[in-house]
TrEMBL record:
Family matches, as Pfam families: YchJ_M-like
Homology family: Belongs to the UPF0225 family.
The protein's name: UPF0225 protein GA0070610_2558
Residue ranges of every copy of the YchJ-like middle NTF2-like domain listed in the record: 41-135
Chain segments annotated as coiled-coil in the UniProt record: none
Amino acid sequence: MAKRPRRRAADDPDRPCPCGSGQPYAGCCGRLHRGEAEAATAEALMRSRYSAFAVGDTAYLLRSWHSSTRPGRLDLDPGQRWTGLEIVDTDRGGLFDATGTVEFRAHHRAGGRPGTQTERSRFVREEGRWVYLDGSPD
């Protein structure tokens, strides 16, 4: 029997958003991925970037990366499945801030094995919008 391809949030707009908000993807991070809205806070951008990894949206990941640290291309591992996001801590990154830091744990499965990526990500405003600057493992 042929294996059915796994549906991603981008393929099913009513599916809960991968960021963990509990809202449908289409009305949550999907709006940011489609360019219909901008992230209001550094944490919102972090959540939307996690969701972009989960749905395989490399174009959004590159668009939301600071121009000074953005790679020329980004290749995602098609065998890695993102399974959950925990926001551990935030420092600034609000509506009136120019910088912010978000510490998170991103859970995944690859090759049938669970894993976790932990990072302290730095965000800044570039031309008025939040972008990912860089991160360090925590």
